[in-house]
């Protein structure tokens, strides 16, 4: 005899049919379906805002003036939240941003053996079947810091969005993190 919790299997019986067959309704598929969209700016531990500059092929955390923030070019993000059948992994999200009159979505690609964060022109899909290079799992940064988050790349466990100092830039990147480690470069406030 195996015990199962309600979190493990979600089924609602509808009716008992011919030959005593039991029929179910509202079974969830493995596809991710967009549930809601949040509109936020993303801040790092230094209170800098993430700014996307597609013309320069860069996304970096920068000090932004109030006037620049009002114009909002490349810094007001849409965080697309998806329904999931595996809530323990975290809330699946995708990011997009408007720059000028174009929409860009965040994705990850392997280049020369290294994972790179990119912003490509286009829209985030309403439904995703299987794996996707645009999905990140949103989790609280630490149990005592519920207003800040870390975002794990869905296709590579232990890889998180972070910033990395590159000259005078704090460039958006993916960074490997061991299970018990706390890394402030991965702390993102919405």
From TrEMBL:
Subunit note: Forms a ternary complex with ligand-binding receptor subunit IL18R1 and signaling receptor subunit IL18RAP at the plasma membrane. Mature IL18 first binds to IL18R1 forming a low affinity binary complex, which then interacts with IL18RAP to form a high affinity ternary complex that signals inside the cell. Interacts with cargo receptor TMED10; the interaction mediates the translocation from the cytoplasm into the ERGIC (endoplasmic reticulum-Golgi intermediate compartment) and thereby secretion.
GO biological process: cellular response to lipopolysaccharide; cytokine-mediated signaling pathway; immune response; inflammatory response; positive regulation of cytokine production
Coarse class of the protein's main subcellular location: cytoplasm
SUPFAM superfamilies: Cytokine
Protein name, per record: Interleukin-18
One Gene Ontology cellular component annotation held by this UniProt entry: cytoplasm
Lineage of the species this protein comes from: Eukaryota, Metazoa, Chordata, Craniata, Vertebrata
Key words of the record: Cytokine, Cytoplasm, Secreted
Places the protein is found: Cytoplasm; Secreted
One Gene Ontology term of the molecular function aspect: cytokine activity
InterPro entries reported for this sequence: IL-18 (IPR015529), IL-1_fam (IPR000975), IL1/FGF (IPR008996)
Family, per entry: Belongs to the IL-1 family.
Gene assigned in the entry: Il18
Organism per entry: Platysteira castanea
